[in-house]
Amino acid sequence: MGHAGAVLLRRLADRVGLTDALAGVLPSGTTSSWRDRATALVGLVVAIALGATNLLEAEQLQLHHGPLFGPAVSDSTLHRLLSTTDETRRAQIAKVRQRVRRHVWALLHLRPGGFPYLTVAGRHLKGWIVLDMDATVITAASRKQGAAGTFKAPSASTRWPRGWPTPTSAWRWS
Fold this sequence. Notes:
This protein is mainly alpha-helical. The chain has seven helices and two strands. Helix content is 45%, strand content 3%.
């Protein structure tokens, strides 16, 4: 994902109420040095989507986006957040995500014309969602007159990372 997608992901989480809902289940502090754990978690998720593979990289990406999102959360704060998140807290986070996901799908259902599903090579893929936020090569049909579907193989930089769950295996929308 290109760095431009960071703003979209972060603002989306805020706009649909995910950040506020997470704040209701994550610990909060009263001192001025306390970092909001919900904002830290959303920032970590955005950093992972941008390619961070460890907490230090997540901090560095947040530093890079400081003018947009405010001060970065340190890797030690992120470590404390993750290490103090027990099974009960993870279940609470999962319930929050489920509730927010239901809300978003309800809003999409109310959209005039329904949800704009993707068409690939003339085939309507109902139930699939593709976010093309950084001009990454996707195999999709064009509405241009006379255009045909493309079946070119993506470059090495656009292939799915080895070992990561694929959209068909782990990221099914419910």
